[in-house]
């Protein structure tokens, strides 16, 4: 058996992808959080909006998102959603530091930011919507697949993040995660109506 530290085992590489929190120090999570914020702001220059807790959309024609709107998007995606998650987890009997939840939510946004690159490489949404009927081109299918995989990866990271930050397991974990997603999505949309 190769125990060389230069080669990560497949299981540890997989664990790093779906449950990195136990392997990363808080400083590493902070760097990933800062990177996702900066990459999200950079993507807004190309017409990508992260307009909700787990949302990603591309504007027609790649029109840049106004900076005030992009900053509002980042606010609802991280600080507001972390506060919502903190309150919900407390209702489920888990006392988790708010800063840890902020870092977990920042880390789990990485798949969304990576998905934005594929969305940008895909066809313009306005051009696709004007086709009657919509033709399923290989690039359109790739963008759709990237969106599904990015969302699934993000939700997986949310589940493993909540499990890491709390003692919740089984049905209580599922209920807490579902409550966080629903409440954060609804409140982020309401906040964006007020902020933009």
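Sequence proposed for the structure above (196 residues):
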């Amino acid at each position: 058996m190769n125990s060389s530290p230069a080669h990560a085992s497949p299981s540890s590489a997989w664990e790093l992808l779906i449950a990195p929190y136990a392997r990363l120090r808080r400083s590493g999570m902070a760097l990933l959080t800062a990177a996702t914020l900066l990459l999200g702001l950079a993507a807004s220059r190309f017409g990508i909006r992260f307009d909700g807790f787990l949302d990603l959309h591309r504007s027609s024609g790649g029109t840049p998102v106004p900076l005030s709107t992009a900053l509002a998007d980042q606010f609802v995606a991280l600080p507001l959603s972390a506060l919502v998650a903190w309150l919900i987890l407390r209702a489920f009997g888990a006392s988790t530091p708010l800063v840890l939840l902020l870092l977990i939510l920042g880390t789990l946004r990485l798949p969304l930011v990576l998905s934005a690159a594929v969305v940008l490489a895909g066809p313009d949404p306005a051009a696709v919507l004007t086709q009657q009927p919509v033709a399923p081109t290989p690039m359109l299918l790739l963008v759709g697949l990237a969106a599904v995989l990015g969302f699934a990866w993000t939700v997986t990271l949310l589940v493993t993040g909540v499990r890491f930050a709390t003692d919740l397991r089984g049905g209580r974990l599922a209920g807490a995660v579902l409550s966080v997603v629903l409440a954060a999505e609804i409140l982020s949309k309401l906040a964006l109506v007020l902020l933009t």
